Amino acid sequence: MAEDFPVSWAPGVRVLFGQATLAARVAELGSRIGADYAGQPLTVLCVLKGASLFTADLVRAIALPLQLEFLGVASYGSGTTSSGEVRITSDTGTPLHDRDVLVVEDIVDTGLTLRFLLQALAARGCRSVRTCALLDKPSRRVEPVTVDYTGFVVEDRFLVGYGLDLDEQWRNLPFVGVLESAPPS
Ligand code: 5GP
Hints:
Elements: E1 13-17, H1 19-36, E2 43-48, H2 52-60, E3 67-75, E4 86-90, E5 100-108, H3 112-123, E6 128-136, E7 149-153, E8 159-160, E9 176-179
Parallel strand pairs: 2-3, 2-5, 5-6, 6-7
Antiparallel strand pairs: 1-9, 3-4, 8-9
Guanosine-5'-monophosphate binds near residues 106, 108, 110 and 165.
């Protein structure tokens, strides 16, 4: 499959989960989510920007009618470190009150972002909230959050691609890769 190997424009990045591996896991998650929400209204809440590519594939693997919403969040910080201070950068287009919401994240690291989101959604009066993350780094957890649907459990390495960035670059890599060495500045 194209680009399932280190690419020239992303030096220092080693492929961890290639396109076929990602597609197979997304299909499994979509089928589980579809079975769990059968007969129930579902709102998929994509957390921007990191979960954008994952969500685009995931919703197409869920064989149910659903509503798709987007919420932009950012934590202050740059490079490979986050301050843990989260803010909403763009809000959903419609209210989430009384909705059954599935929050879709790219990666749960310390858990601070997900904790912030769960508190914000509780305040909005969602009927139910479950969580889905493509990647989970449990060894880094600071906040004990529950991830209901996990794609892959990963070690404490900085990952890029398939939505994940390094300083806003490399989200468009079609695979999830490990940053083995810092890119030339
Ligand atoms: P947390 O609040 O759980 O520490 O981290 C959540 C956010 O930090 C993720 O949604 C993601 O944007 C960023 N993050 C955490 N680990 C990584 C990583 O390995 N690579 C990238 N690119 N972002 C990460």
